[in-house]
Amino acid sequence: MTRRRIAIALAILVALCGALPVSLLGAAGLRIIQQRGERASQDALQAIAAQAAARIEAYVAQQREMLRTLAMAVGSEPDATRRLADASLDAPSLGKMRLISPASPEAELPRSLSPEQMARARAGVEVASPPYLVDLSPAMDVCVPSGAPGRTVCATLDLMELQRQVQRIRVGESGYALAFDRSGRLLATGSGSLRAAVLSGEPVGESPIAAALSAGAPAPQRLRLSGRRDMFAGWAVLHDLGWSIAVEQPADEALQGARTALTLLGLGAVATLLLSIGVGYWLARRMLASLELEERFRMAGQIAGGISHDLGHRLVILQQIEQLAAMNDADYLPRIRDSLAAEVGTLRRFVRDFADLTREARPADFTPVEINALAESARAGASSYAEEAQVRLHVSRAPSELWIWGDRYLLERATLNLIRNAIEASQPGGAVRLRIEKRGSAAILVVEDEGGGIPDERIAGLFEAFASTKRTGAHVGMGLPNVKRIVTAHRGQVSVISRAGRGSAFTIWLPAADQSSSPSPPTPMP
Amino acid sequence: MRRLVLISVLFACGSPPARQPFLLRVAMWGPLGKLTPESGDTDSLAVIAQPWVFEPLARFDAAGELVPVLAWRIAALQGGRFQVELRKDRTFSDGAGVTTDDVVNSFEGKARISAANGGLTIESVDRAMPIEALLTDVHIHRDHGGQVLGTGPFAVSAASASELRLVRRRTDPGKVDEVRILAYATPREAFAHTLKGDANLIPDLEPRWVEFFGGVPSLKIVRSPGHFTDSVLFNLRLSRSERLDLAARLESNDIRDAAYGPGECAETKSGTSPAARIPPGAALEVMTWGPFERLGSAARRSLGPRAGALTNLTPLEVLARLRAGQFDLVTVRPPVWPPSAISLAWHSGARDNLNGYSNPAVDRALDARDWAAARAAMRADPPAAFICTRDRLAVVDARIKNPTLGPGDLLETLPDWEVSQ
Asked: Of the residues A218, A237, A349, B285, which has the fewest C-beta atoms closer than 10 A?
């Protein structure tokens, strides 16, 4: 993984850890605010409806009380008709007041009261009609006792004030009120588009609800009427008259505040997240660069230490050889020659190990490699060393050809490294096995020995540079780290299982490839 | 670069989006009747379309001054005569130009017309009929194949018992293209259909109905000064001083406030003298009819000790008693606009002079067309108490940008209304 990718991953991780919980918490909080807002809006509408109902009820009651007072004051006077006409001028809301007796002509009788009601009125009982429309405004016939037997004072109450009060109610930008009679007929409304129903008597969406409400049923606080906006509603009933008042406001308008807050929070969360990622990425890159620099210095120190140690060891041997040579004793010449040859060989391997470190696995150089053939080639390369150590070398091939894409030289170097280590770990007479097999989509190469095994405490740092315990001068401690580097560059993995006294098994997993298709390209070597 | 210029030119030459014709649907109630050029046919709803189809020789502007329409020059002559020169560019809806014969035929029985000095001299047949009223009321028309043609911007395209359709003769972008007059049985029906969107204009509303249209976004309310004044007519057997006292008493704001809604009368705004006392005498009966019941009640109450009976009759009964002189006070609605209209009501022997009012000073001023002097003379010898002039009101489609009501006919300015699409 490149430094850039690591930085992005780290930044996103940190940002998500910070911004996401805050956003979720905020969203939950806003959901609560929204629910409370909904409840508060409905409560407010309910309160407005109740207030309007109380005002209208008080207005109608006041009109009726005024009529009663006037009727009792002048109804039994000889010039009652004239005095009622004069009083009508000062109380226009009572309409035309008239004294009704059994002799009154038909035209004088209130149009919406039945003969039975009129008989009761003349008998001294107050009667009232349901509301009806005169021209464009609602009206209501009321007859009250006149104080004179057989006579009643009737008036047509002008309920234009009801219309005014209802039309005057405005909630927010587009909230309005509606007034219904007992049957659900719309009497007045602040909504211009519904006002035609006042005149035509056609039921509106709320009519059934209003009728049911007058009969004692509960009314919904949220209305979803076809062809209209989703509305919150508050309802109130005028118990004396049997009318109902609805105050409505579009739900989206009522919840506008909560919605705006939610949108702002969402935008804020996204902005914070992006900012966190940006800042985190920048900081992570700086930290990684610093860590990498530190790691390089550490690695350089480790290599320098290793080289100093190994070359120092070789230097001591060469000094001893030099001292032998200085003795000018011909008997020592063969020994001097053999020692020099051994040291040259050691230094050559030393140089080769470093040369391996400098070669990178580049996908462009990859070719199809048959693993069985690779294993055979590695065995051939290690056979002389195995013979020298008196260790048998066996190869267990896969039943069929097993191909991968890779750098054959590097893979063979990695395999040889594992074989050489296995031989070195084996006792004379022991055996080292190379096993090739296919597991799923992976090609497996296992190098097993019968040595003493690796102590548990060493397993964890086995693939780290200069971690070898065999630093006898022939190893620089770069073998297994180099194996891991090569395998990882081929998108593979290397692992070890070791048991004390029973040997170790190093396993290389590589992506298998069909001969006909290309395997996925390897990652560049770190 | 050249290609870019070519593309720009091609785009610039593309046709603009098609304009939707603007249709105005006028909701009214009552019998539609037939559209004729005759004025005074107030029973027919179709009369509202007269000023769009037929044109007079002249119209009154807002100040009450004559403005030529089919004439290009009008000059007042001595003896109540006018000289008129016709415009040459006006045509009837069949394309024919307006001729002297068309004018003579249109004025037949109402005015004497003679050709002189390249123009026409017009003189009213009826001395009490001011010639200004004739010039503005007589619509020049021509009978053509059983149809009556006018020179106005609209022509009738279809007519039925409940609908009259008129289309603009020449397209005028940004103006009303078509008008349909829809006759409903009741005002409630007309209003309900307007609120539903089936119509978008209601002419001549009662002030108390206006509130009903408040807050309807698709409509707006327009008003203009009224042409009639609700009045209480005096029987002329009452002495001049009694009539002066009665006029002073009845023209008070107390009466207006009792009989009308707040701010409903133009006179309330200008203010009047405080209510005067009425001298003792015989009880006075107040006769009323139709829409004047509250005015009658208020008038009777203001009479105090002289208040007599309040009699509510039908218009025909009222007319019969007026002709017989059997009344004391009666509620009436005489015209006050155009200024010359007072001649119709108060000139000696005028057709609409209901109480037989005759005042030589008033007649002289009316004959001289000095309306201010005539009004001053009437104030000194009042035939009636002039109580309340109410605005004329209409509800109009809110897309109309300048919906002014005409100083003369209510909707005479409709052809000039500009619309926003």
From this structure: A218
